[in-house]
Amino acid sequence: MNDILNKFYKNQGSLYKILLCIVSTILIVYLFPKSGKFQFDFQQNKPWQYDNLYAPVDFAILKSEDQLEQERSEAENNIIPYFIYDQDIANESKAAYENQFASVFTDSIFRDRQKELKSFGSKILEDIYKYGVISDIASFEDGRKVYLRRGNEIEETSIENLNTTDEITILINRRLVNSPYVQSVNRFKELFFDVVQPNVVYDEKLTNKELNAELSKIAPTKGVVNKGSRIVAKGEIVEQNTYQILKSLQAEYESQSWTASKYNWVVFGYVLLVSVALTMLLLFIRNYREAVFENNTKVTFIFFNIILMVLLTTIIVKYDANYVYVVPLCILPLVIKAFFDARLGMFTHVISILLLGFIVPNTSEYMFLQVIAGIVTILTVSELYKRANLFISVGQITFIYILGYFAFHIIHEGTIDNLEWETFSMFIITGLATLFVQPLIYAYEKIFGLVSDLSLLELTDTNSKLLKDLANKAPGTFHHSLNVANLAEAAANEIGANSMLTRVGALYHDIGKMANPTDFTENQSTGINTHEDLSPYESASIIIDHVINGIEIARKNNLPDRVIDFIRTHHGTSTVYYFYKKAQEQDEDVNIEDFRYPGPLPFSKETAILMMADSVEAASKSLKNPTSVLIDSFVEKIVNKQMDDNQFLNANITFKEIQVIKKVLKSKLNNIYHLRIEYPE
Questions:
Q1: With the C-alpha atoms ordered 154, 155, 158, 162, is the resulting torsion angle positive or negative?
Q2: Do the Cβ atoms of 492 and 605 come closer than 8 Å?
Q3: pTM listed for this prediction
Q4: Can you tell me the mean pLDDT for 259-285?
Q5: Taking the CB of residue 336, how many other CB atoms lie within 10 A of it?
Q6: Cα separations in angstroms, 450 against 21, 335, 336, 383, 563
Q7: Sequential DSSP letters for 267-321
Q8: Do the Cβ atoms of 554 and 505 come closer than 8 Å?
Q9: Confidence at residue 677, expressed as pLDDT on a 0 to 100 scale
Q10: Helix-, strand-, coil-residue percentages of the chain, each rounded to 5
């Protein structure tokens, strides 16, 4: 039982990653569509890349969306609208005319002809209400036939026969201008303005019922392809008709009623492919990013981001596949690069795109655009903490998307006449959404406990509480840390290491000296050396303990683990040589392990750079009359001794890079200790 528990404990990291891979595979496959995927990938106006294709079954040819839209539009244009004629309103208007006529035509000039005028007005009113009065017919074009429903009777007429309230004045003028009653025009206008009311309304419900009946008659198909008929030959250009037949075959295939057995096989196929992709990512991390692989939180973080991108894309595809480019997929390589490095960011991005290829339309086009956009993202955003860089990168990403879409459109259509400008706006939205990466990185730092260059930039502020305490309590150590930071940053830049991380590590590497600052020579401003009254063992213990103290102070102040690594490794397993030699003078049988730092050894380029820069800068204070030759030999001696002691054995740094670092350190120290001319007093 104990053996089993021991094996479980030793392999719990590996077991966790296997479980993570299984859970991620299940989640991703759950999000995928479960219908069978059509086995052919084709595009309009491009050659058919497969063997001759014959119809496997009889299937109907679906009409294209444009054809269906055209037929719907024709049905809407040909439908005859219905209007309701209200006889009661017409009768009320006629009754009001009878009642108000005498009160309007009261002048003596009309008194003798009232009967004639009233009869003439009644005829005009009858003409007005022959087809009725409507408030507005602006939405109907001239000459259109309409149905006028009077009770249970329906009459077909023209839209022009319906009078609008604005046309009544024109009708009165036309009827009276050539009549013997022309002087009564204004009185009739006044009377009709009061009594005439609209009595015809558009019957939208009945019209829509008729329209829906006509739309239901539109067939979604146009012919049938018989089983065994050749659909397309190898190398043949997929023209519009062939393309529509292929789309019909694809729809027929995907609409099949899947049995439980078929469904299970589809799921099993997805599981195999997704698990292979995620396993390749894990193997890449294990072989090339061992430090990341050993940290379960970091591996979980990478898988979480992949699942998040699959989730967002699936939601958009289910809503409307045309908006698939709205998902800001370039955030993924930016986030991974911010916390790890560009190579891992690109590899993760490619794996994600391969997975998304199962659910997006136009797979090859989508994958090409997203891979190119990811490459541009990785190449252009060198320093994410600089806001200008991010904005420039977003502009370049958007441009690449637009350029790629434009090129694909030309290839497919052979013209630029029908460019879809809505797609360009989607690319702009995607670019702007990429700017969300900065608040997302901040959230990830809090959730997963990771640290990015943005946080490292904040840690370089010498006005931060911890660095101000270091400057106040151990000013000599603070000055030493600044010098080391400058040396290490310059060296990191030369060999392509993370210069920001190296600078932060250098600034905080000696914070442990705040526990007892006067025990270190750089802080002994009074000239009193406390080690004169101590044994070499006690002195060595004090010097070595500044590493342990530094780790404790760093943890209390919530410094990231990446920064604490510099505190732990900046002396590696080297010895406190001065006190070791002093102890040998007193007793030759001295155990060197009593004077050795606990380690660990530097395990990255950045921590190795700090060890070199720290040793060289500290020892340079002992040079009394520094010259260029002396400085060069001095740097060579210190770094070579560290190499002989195997201090860089675990760091992924090459001999060539160490030579470059030596060169930078020599150049910088020569600049620091350059000779000045002696000015006259």
A1: negative
A2: yes
A3: 0.64
A4: 86
A5: 24
A6: 21, 11, 11, 17, 11
A7: HHHHHHHHHHHHHHHHHHHHHH-HHHHT-HHHHHHHHHHHHHHHHHHHHHHHH-G
A8: no
A9: 46
A10: 65, 5, 30
Rounded to an integer, the average pLDDT of 575-602 is: 81
Q: How far is CA 326 from the centre of its chain?
A: 8
Report which of residues 647 and 59 the model is more confident about.
647
pLDDT, tens digit, 9 for 90 and up, residues 468-505: 999 999 998 999 999 999 999 999 999 988 888 999 99
Residue keyed to tokens 């510099």: 566
Name, in order, each residue with C-beta under 8 angstroms of 471's C-beta and a sequence gap of 6 or more.
Answer: 462, 478
Q: What is the pLDDT of residues 183-194, one digit of tens each?
A: 777 887 888 888
Domains of the chain: 1-35+261-436 (no CATH), 76-215 (no CATH), 454-673 (1.10.3210)
pLDDT at position 217 over 90: no
How far are the Cα atoms of 320, 483, 550, 629 from residue 621, in angstroms, in the given order? 68, 12, 23, 16
Phi/psi-derived region of residue 341, left when phi > 0, alpha when psi is between -120 and 50, beta in every other case: beta
Q: Distance (Å, rounded) from C-alpha 324 to C-alpha 339?
A: 27
DSSP 306-372: HHHHHHHHHHHHHH-GGGGGGS-TTHHHHHHHHHS-HHHHHHHHHHHHHHHTTTSSSHHHHHHHHHH
Mean pLDDT of 240-257: 75
Bridge partners (DSSP) of residue 164 are 134
pLDDT tens, 447-462? 888 888 778 888 888 8
Round to whole Å and give the CA distance between 256 and 252: 6
Cα three-residue angle 177-178-183, rounded to 5 degrees: 50
Alpha-carbon torsion, ordered 505, 508, 510, 515, to 10 deg: -150
What's at 366, amino acid-wise?
Y
Between these two residues, 308 and 47, which has the higher pLDDT value?
308
Q: Do residues 245 and 225 make contact, with C-beta atoms less than 8 angstroms apart?
A: yes
Q: Name residues whose C-beta falls within 8 Å of residue 364's C-beta, 6 or more positions apart in sequence.
A: 41, 43
Give the pLDDT mean for 664-668: 92
CB 408 within 8 A of CB 365: yes
Residue closest to 287 by CA, chosen among 343, 337, 335, 351: 343
Residues 293-310: pLDDT tens digits? 988 999 999 999 999 999
* DSSP labels, 541-553: HHHHHHHHHHHHH
Of 470, 483, 472, 476, give the one whose Cα is nearest residue 511: 470
Maximum CA extent, the chain: 151
Number of H helices, E strands in the chain: 29, 10
Torsion sign (Cα): 370, 372, 373, 378: positive
Instruction: Give the pLDDT band of residue 110 (cuts 50, 70, 90).
Output: low
Residue 4 has pLDDT above 80, yes or no: no
Size of the chain, expressed as the number of residues it contains? 681
